[in-house]
Amino acid sequence: MVKNVVIIGGGIAGIYVLRNLLARRGDLEEDLNLTLIKREKRGWVSVCGLPYALRGWYEIERAMINKPEFFIEQGADFRTETEVTNINAKNRSLTLKSGEVMKYDYLVIAMGRTPFLPEAVENTTLENVYTLNDEEDAIKIEAAVGSDDVKRVFVRGRGIIAVQAAVAAATKGLETTVLGGPPSLLPASLDPDMGDMLKEWLEKQGIKFILEQKAITALKEEDGRVRSVVIGDGEEEIPADLVVISMGMRPNTKLTSDAGIETGETGGIITDCSLHAKKGRNYLKDVYALGDCIEVIDGITHRPRLNQMASTAVVQANVVSDNILSDVTEDPSQYSSYDPCVGPVVADIGGLLVGSVGLTTEAAARAGIKTISGKATKLTKARYFPGAKPLTMKLIFDAYSKKLVGAQMVSETAVAERVNEMAVAIRAGITAEDLRNTERCYDPSLSLLIDVTVDAAQGALGIKPVY
Description:
With 467 residues, this protein is α/β, with parallel strands linked by helices. It has helices at residues 12-24, 50-54, 68-72, 135-145, 160-171, 192-203, 254-258, 310-329, 361-366, 416-428, 432-437, 452-460, and strands at residues 3-8, 32-37, 44-45, 64-66, 77-79, 84-88, 93-96, 101-103, 106-109, 113-115, 129-130, 152-156, 175-180, 208-211, 216-222, 225-231, 236-239, 242-245, 249-251, 276-279, 282-289, 296-297, 304-305, 345-349, 352-358, 371-379, 390-398, 404-411. The protein has a six-stranded mixed β-sheet with strand order 5-2-1-9-21-20.
């Protein structure tokens, strides 16, 4: 008997569910009829790669990983420029904008996120006012910054997408201003002392920052195109030929809410540990949700949160595809459970590498966790070796248990491996004493005898480093 699996959403969450099921359906006695529906006209696009394309590292087209034909040739019904207008969970059916009704045995909701636009700001539909959410936005921004009419760029926001957009503009030699709230940049990932290091780095590249509690009051236009931004109580007007608004992303849940599927305090869809979506008091055993549209449980505070990261979506896709196959085959050994997350993050922002995992000091305080912390700056290998670069690391520990709850790092050299190391340490309940006393590999061409991690852990314990 053929089982119909319908996936709504063609971002990385939906694509990875489709990839997993395509790869494994040949082992099944029962066939799977796989359909993916997305509103966009392209196939699988690496949204995470778009900011680097805007910096000129490569063409935007190279961020397309697979065209629709790639999946169609494998037997998937891959539908682009198609929109679902109704979900009927009781009848296990979907209605498309075209009027077509589709039946499903399993529904996978991977509808992603939508950019937040402040309602109080008028004229957000003016020419050259954009968000940076998908490849269509990137194409429009690239065309605008390459025109002779754009000399000044204004960015509203202080998260990764906002500062990436600012870097892209500054790289093109454009006068760039960023308006964000106090006290510093990337507040979801970095404490202010670490965020200030990024701010100072980007200021050297000519980016101007306004980190004050000011909102955009109005966007002024000329011939339908934005020409300036009014902020605060109207006392300051900043000329701008292009505006990027990046004030966070909201889970895309209107369609699912209309279908009675529950959302939580963060605005994301509520799921159980198998990633079944919730409706009323029950979880729907034939409806899964994952990716940017769901809320997750924080691995440290155990409270609901959003974690709209590609790496998170891939893990969730494994869980969803495992559980669909477990149900189809009636094989419980294939079942997977999604664990609370710690949210590792890494980015190259204007040549400075930034990484974090776990809680910031402020996030820990909001959760009622008292913390101690240590910060250190050291070279990543012996000072007499070419290419030795400084790395600043901040480690945050629970003041009572001394367990690691957060790590932040900034450097011109690789930090991704260290972020992953600290993610494992948080999950394992590693303490400051453990990090101080754990043996570490050493070769002067590759590492230091006493790593920056050790100095940061000792700092949290009040132990002076040995030089």
